[in-house]
Amino acid sequence: MRIDIITCLPKLLESPFSDSILKRAQDKKLVEVVVHDLRQYSTNKHRTTDDYAFGGGAGMVMMIEPIDRCIASLKEQRIYDDIIYMSPDGELLSQPLANQLSLKKNLILLCGHYKGVDERVREHLITREISIGNYVLSGGELAAAVVSDAIIRLIPGVLSDETSALTDSFQDGLIAPPVYTRPAEYKGWKVPDVLLSGHEAKIQEWRHTQSIERTKARRPELDKN
User: Does the predicted TM-score (pTM) go above 0.90?
Assistant: First the structure.
């Protein structure tokens, strides 16, 4: 898989991809993440990517020309499955959506800034919009990193235990059950006996029950029972 991220602040994306699982995925050649500085596609001498909004109003708007030039340059090199704009009013990121995107080969993530992008970008250049929550960030870089993380960890071979991602919260519409590790007792706080029993069927039954109860209590909107 290849993920191209378009941003006017590329340094904001250095840290998320230089450590842990995302770095190992790149080192293993399972994914290629390329960050593109939008300012390099500006045609004015100051390398600006924003301008005042027609009709007035507070805030600046990202111009269509640099974005179009960058996307056109990338599309000359390969075919993209989706060109995604990170937007607070886009489709809400979910586990099923992450699962779907993890099967793609080439993706572009466009990071918004200021008051957003020229509407013609949304009308003519992108194929979908994604939001990571009902709130506004200073820019789309953190959102792009979140989406990338959610996608990349699902690629076969990225996690050392490939069954781990399949048992994450939301994969089956439920929140994950509680987990414990050594010691079995700490300050009088004990691990549930069933987890120490070695009885696999009873353990799985306990975990499923806990997932249902947790979902009802903490995320009732997910409960379909």
Answer: no
